[in-house]
Amino acid sequence: MPRDYDAVRSAKSMQDVGQHVFIPEHYCIEQSQELLDYITANPMCQVSCVHEGRVLSTAMPLIACRKDAGSYVGHMARRNPMADALSKGGEVLAVFSGPEAYVSPSWFTQRQTVPTWNYLSVQLRGEWEQLTRAEDIEAVMSDTVVHMEGLLAETSQHKAWNMQTVDPDLYAGLLHGIVAFRLKPSSLEGVKRLNQDKDIRDIDSIMRGLSASSQRHSREIVALMQTQYAEFLSSGNDA
């Protein structure tokens, strides 16, 4: 990896390289595994579709399907209008919105500029298939609980909860009130805008500004930037 940040910067461009998403090359998440890992760690997303000329959207978690590698499963309330709209299937767009933070021009030291925004976002498109068999619906609920309880256990002394502790009548009512589905991805794209086209001295200054900021996700953005530029920031390179 080059030590000169200008060499890294010149290897990219502002050309749009997104297939379905506007992604300047500088900000493209090129490694598919990074996209998959992000969804695994942050499964809550906004799923949207077009039905009879109207855009419908709802928030839900998408979990990797254990029985069908590469697919995702999810669920929503049966009374959600989107459940009826997609009862026969169709294309949907799932947007996983990551941390974001406003970047003030006052944090730039090397050039005059205007405000910008740092953020991470992943978009998944695919075909929605409603699951109707009771065992499939139960599997979706089980997979969701196992996945989320596992995430909690990774970061704390959390004792995992399981579905077997639920009263059978309550559980039956829960299953009756939801619609489960499988999503087979046709495309997966991501953008990670972390000032990749800026001077490393400005990047360092932006990180200091964000560290002192009260914005909700500023610390998460700083952590992403520290990972992105670890080699250059630790080298003391003035490129």
TrEMBL record:
Coiled-coil boundaries: none
Query: What protein is this chain from?
Result: Transcriptional regulator
Give the source species: Pseudoteredinibacter isoporae
Show the taxonomic lineage. Bacteria, Pseudomonadati, Pseudomonadota, Gammaproteobacteria, Cellvibrionales
